[in-house]
Amino acid sequence: MDDCARGASGAAGLSQAEGKIASAVEDFRASLARGRRMHPRDLEKVEMDFFALLRGLL
Predict the structure, then answer these.
(1) What does the pLDDT look like over 19-31, one tens digit per residue?
(2) Which residue, 30, 49, 48, 28, is CA-closest to 38?
(3) Quick check: 20 and 42 in contact, CB under 8 A?
């Protein structure tokens, strides 16, 4: 795999992780607006996606 293909693959993975994080943040905001809290497992998923995004940037 050449560098260009590797870069495109990495960018797609980062974009997917960003989308998951944005979706989880929106879910969190909506649950707060309804007076609810997120389940700890949901927060763990957000944390895992966030750190995957950071690893991809480094």
Answers:
(1) 887 887 888 788 7
(2) 28
(3) no
